[in-house]
Amino acid sequence: MAESRKNARRQRKESQQKQRQLHWLIGAGMAIVLTMVIYFTWQEITIGSPTSAIAAADPAIGPESAPVEIVEYADFGCTACRAWHNAGIREQIIATFGEQVRFVWKDFPVITPQSPQAAKAGHCAAAQGKFWEFHDLVYEQFAGLGVDALRGYATRVELDQAAFDQCLDQRAMRAKVQANDQEARRLGLRGTPGFAINGRPLPAPPSFDQLAALIQQELAQN
Are 153 and 121 within 8 A, CB to CB? Predict the structure, then answer.
């Protein structure tokens, strides 16, 4: 009988120990989950949410009040985009029409597997106020779109390298790029560079004379 009571006490003690261990494990698990929630919430607040990134202004040249807005949907890996840029058409249009026109860049990263990452890199440069410097360097001294190449461009335009590297990993920038891509597809654009003038898509990349004529038509209507 004494042995039986002893065994019962031992079993109760073991049961209590197991319950304490179970409670400790549950508490530790909840603490880990809570820590992860706090961490990822902090990331969303300090690094930026997808919604806020999508709402951020696209890189642009010219006043928001300009009567003519020209949007270029382009890809950093696109040779035709590079050729259009290097032809200097944008600069000629600005020199001719001044503050009557506004150029806006939007992503349409469909040419190479690295294009979406390069598009993100462009927005990371924009976050440091140097999108157009980054844009011009990529098109004028193209050295690929791998991560090392993107970091090299960032260094050459004197970006904060640590901030740039961190930015490349943000899902917020990915959401921004995807939103621009979807907009280009809704307009029915089928290649790069694609263009829209005051929201109306153009059938092909315009020459200077073609774009100037279209701008004059828009100005006459306004």
Answer: yes
- Report the largest interatomic distance among the alpha carbons of the chain, rounded to a whole angstrom: 108
The radius of gyration of the chain from alpha carbons, rounded to an integer in Å, stands at 28
Number of structural domains (the chain) is 2
Task: Give the helix/strand (H/E) hosting 160.
Answer: none
pLDDT per residue as tens digits for the range 104-140: 999 999 999 999 999 999 999 999 999 999 999 999 9
| 148 contacts 178 by C-beta, under 8 angstroms | no
**Domain range spanning residue 39?**
2-47
3-state secondary structure of 139: helix
Helix, strand or coil for residue 133? Answer: helix
What is the distance between the alpha carbons of residues 126 and 111, in angstroms, rounded to a whole number? Answer: 22
- Clarify whether residues 14 and 61 are in a common domain: no
Q: What's the CA gap between 127 and 148, in Å, rounded?
A: 19
Same domain, 104 and 199: yes
pTM: predicted TM-score of the whole model, two decimal places:
0.75
